Amino acid sequence: MTPLLKVHGLEVEIEGLPILRGVDMEVRQGEILGVVGETGAGKSMTARSILDLLPSAATVSFRVCTFGGRDFIPAKERQQARGHRIGFVPQRPRGSLNPVFRVGTQLSDTLRRLRGMGRREAKGEALDLLRSVRITDPKRVYRSYPHELSGGMCQRVCIAIALAGEPELIIADEPTTGLDVTIQAEMLKLLGDVIIEHNAAGMLITHDLGVVADVCDRVAVMYAGRVVNLGSTDEIYRAALHPYANQLVSIATSLDSGGTPREIPGRVPNPGDELAACAFAPRCFRAETDCFEQEPPLVDINGQQAFCHHAITTEALPL
Amino acid sequence: MLTYIARRVIALIPILIGVTMVAFLVSRGLPGDPARLYAGMQASELEVQAIRASLGLDKPLYYQYWVYMQGLVQGDLGFSPRTGFPVAEDIRNRLPATVEMVIFALIFALSVALPLGVWAAVRRGKLIDRFSRFISTLGVAVPDFWAALILVMIFFVFLDIAPPPVGRLDLGAVSPDGPTGFYIFDSLVRGQWATFRNALAHIILPMVALGFPAIAPITRLTRNATLSVLQSDYIAFGRASGLRGAPLYLKYVLRNSLPGAITMTGLISGYMIGGAVLIERVFSWPGVGLYAYNSLERTDHAGIQGVVLLSAITYLLVFLVVDLVQSIVDPRVRLK
Prior knowledge:
Chain A has helices at 43-50, 75-81, 93-96, 103-115, 119-132, 138-143, 151-163, 181-197, 209-215, 233-239, 243-256, 289-293; strands at residues 5-14, 17-27, 32-36, 58-61, 64-67, 70-71, 86-89, 169-173, 201-206, 218-223, 226-232, 298-301, 304-307.
């Protein structure tokens, strides 16, 4: 089956500094792909490249970018997909709604713009959308201003706006940032459910692997502007090939079981830092000289892919 | 809302009493003897004395102020020996001319400044941004009366496409008999098309001269506010949801960039109503500014006090209106 979204060799530079160094990933029809990695790994940049929402100082290039079989390399194609074919759920939901317009106005405006609805029709559809994101009193929320609503409520509204154009893909960029910890899990569950109900696919960007396990079908692990490990959530959790992904998973699971995680030594490189052939090598417990000198090869086992000289295959498992 | 307005208006009273004192003292401190001016150069000292007594100027200051205030609470602003009319009536006759010009000047200034400010921010550093900075600098550097003179020179003297600067209508034209005193509005509702066209032609140059300096600060404020709005999360999300072009900038961006421009417009309109003195002088515009100018020239105490008081009231009311408008534009602003 051809993937819904296919991105190959995505590179982004901002003022000469490489931010993304060849991102490869694909989102299949009907699946939710988790994109994880530490801050600065390039997760949001990847999402914004797909929507052509990068700052004007950035230069973007794709080797391949298709969406539903269409060439998405021309920026115009990607711009026209915003809202229509790709819905976007932001981080910091309270700040993401316009403070001077009623929530209902913003939602109906979106419907009128994306689906060419009349005023009355848009209002009815807006109330339905609010109901579909489990808002129990849609009429009150419709009349409210963003500052009168909680963060969680604002995020539900943002999800409704993302759904307004009946998109095939929903990209959620750290959708729980800025929300109370108590409702983060509920919000992600909702997001996952809503994506399925609306027959869409999802790309969920987060730095929390625990979140991914509950909602995502597959996971892409990013490090220093590249996807280093990609596979089904089960596979990644059971036996991630890439040492970085493997350690992230063990941190997440030991946090879940209340243990003290063993942290990864060193720090994430900044854009412009001198990188080894494998950017993770300086922090990696399996690194040898080849990691510093030669580009890591693609390892593909059980449908799980990783770029690594010394991938943790079951035969070689040290522990 | 209504109780809020009532409270604000009541709070104005002590301020206005202060204003009357200052206006009273300042007008007495002006050089020139109104009795002598009124009596004329030929009058004898005895006649001047008599006039002084009839104007009440021989009484002590505190008593004169007391008399003035007694009249004021009954709406009597005093009598102008210069025009021979009560000051309240003088002002009532001249205020519409000034207000009409100010309204046109503000509409002109805003309709240039708001789009220009937004556009300059969107195309930051580009040609339009540099053009807006040029306009802003020009607006600050060019005094309004000078702009007025240049406009008259170009469009009346050289090009001869503007009417002569002789007031609100051609000399000898009959003013419309409308209810408001705003010629353009009155002639429109009465269907007096010739008068309407005439009034419109006469207001264009003063509108531009008075409005042009206002473009500068409003453009700059709008541009800077828009720059920060464009950085905001809600505009990023709006774009990601497919908003762009004119609906994005003129609805979702502009509404958030407005507060600074609204306050500035309020300040400017307050200034214009009391301060269009030189513009009115250039265009012989029979408004409050010209009245103030003539009152000052003739040391007309009552006239000066009346204009100062009007100017103060205008300012204070404008601030009230500004606050009300802010609360409409931005629902987070609460009136307390």
